[in-house]
Amino acid sequence: MSVRELVVLGTASQVPTRHRNHNGYLLRWDGQGILFDPGEGTQRQMLRAGVAAHDLNRICVTHFHGDHSLGLAGVIQRINLDQVPHPVTAHYPASGQRFFERLRYATAYRETVPLTEAPVDADGPLAVTEAYTLDARLLSHPVESYGYRLTEPDGRRILPERLAAHGIKGPDVGRIQRDGVLGGVTLDEVSEVRRGQRFAFVMDTRLCDGVYALAEGADMLVIESTFLDEDVRLATDHGHLTAGQAAAVARDAGVRHLVLTHFSQRYSDPSEFERQARAAGFEGELSVAQDLMRIPVPKR
Fold first, then answer.
1. Which residues are identified as catalytic?
2. Backbone phi, then psi, for 34, in 5-degree steps?
């Protein structure tokens, strides 16, 4: 059974709180698992969320500030301790290669699992598989930062009423799907395009072209909203977004489900983030992330 969901491991920004761990997000995509921005404490949060090292196929780091990467050492060592039976690929800004190496080899351990280093140094595709294409886009932060976007290939949705109109039934349905034509009837005549699902992950950044490119048409957008709108100057100065800015991006990009996260410890009322996001005009599904939430990717 295919599962596509976001498992939220941590939602704090620079300073964790009693209720919010540092960042960490696992995207389950059918049989694949992509771990985004493992901050300090991610390994323990994985345990609490029922996530195993065996679930990980890729690790995507947006940038090398500690709240987005200090958990790498523990996660990588756990992958090796548990002898994960498949290769794991790590994507991260190429400018932070020295930080990745320091975290990967922070202490002594026995390497048992192939870990492919795939640093990012430009916009564009990072990986193309049968299930998805993974892209990166440069963001705007005091250190080099990239956001990530997962796009499923488009498919086709069979329309039963059109099959019936052409008298196609039983095994012939499979034949036309496989061959593209049956008795002069083409697959296009009995089906329609089913657009692939799209997932976007945007962390520490000001508003920039990369934010909009990542968010465009996303079924789910996970995006930082470190500050509330009244602190927009702080957000801009430190390379972050406000709740209203993040929601306006989602509104203009046609996002279906907006997930706000990466909250400053200065705020104690999570409902204010939702209020400001709605005030910005976003009318789709909205989640103000909490640690250990599980959020399904909207179905097509």
1. 67
2. -115, 120
Under DSSP, is residue 194 helix (H, G, I), strand (E, B) or coil?
strand
Q: What is the pLDDT of residues 196-240, one digit of tens each?
A: 999 999 999 999 999 999 999 999 999 999 999 999 999 999 999
SS3 assignment for 209-225: HHHHHHHCCCCEEEEEC
Contact 189, 166 (CB under 8 A): yes
* Other Cβ atoms closer than 10 A to 134: 20
pTM here is: 0.93
Where does residue 283 rank: exposed (0-12), middle (13-18), buried (19+ CB within 10 A)? exposed
Instruction: Give the start-end residues of each E strand in the chain.
Output: 4-10, 24-29, 32-36, 58-60, 88-93, 115-120, 124-128, 133-138, 146-151, 155-158, 181-182, 185-186, 191-194, 198-202, 220-224, 257-261, 285-288, 294-296
Tell me how crowded residue 54 is: count the other CB atoms within 10 A of its CB. Answer: 13
